[in-house]
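User: Hey, my collaborator sent me this sequence without any context and asked if I could get a structure. I don't really work with proteins. Can you help?
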Amino acid sequence: MARLDAKLLSSLIAELRRRHPGIFIIAFPHWGWNYDWKSIRQEQEAKNLLAAGVDLVLGHSAHRMQEVERVEGRWVVYSLGNFMFGSPGRYAELHSPPFSLVAMLMFRVVDRQLQPFLKLYPILSDNLQTGYRPRLVNETEFADVVQLLRQRSSSHDLMRTGVDNLGSHLRLELR
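Assistant: No problem. I've predicted the 3D structure and written it out in structure-token form, which is a compact way to encode the shape of the chain:
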């Protein structure tokens, strides 16, 4: 992960907000250790991104889901994990939960204002278990995902669970 130029990012975001009031800014950093939980460096970089004015951090690169936390009033998904990945993976070898998250950013209108929210659909992403066909988790696996995130994430009480026509998901209110 390259070091963030916080001053430059802050000035760019300030200019974007000046030109486009109400803009919603998402950072998508490529960071983290493979098949592991978040690192101290990820936590610090997430705080830097938020301090620069980012509204949501959706990290990736760890090949599995990582913690989901509310930091300074905004959400950080440290790693979504894998969606389609053409390697067998090392989940079992590294004793890593075989789950990833698929993000769906949605907006609804409330009092003539756009209100963003995020749905995170857990998937089983271990190719050795799925035959290279990741799938949405079943009910038991969803309970495992929720338990893991509640154990590891400081903001678990702010995450909502739901089921829709796509499947079970976590729901995060973004504003």
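In plain terms: Helices lie at 6-19, 40-51, 127-130, 139-152. You can pass these tokens on to your collaborator as they are.
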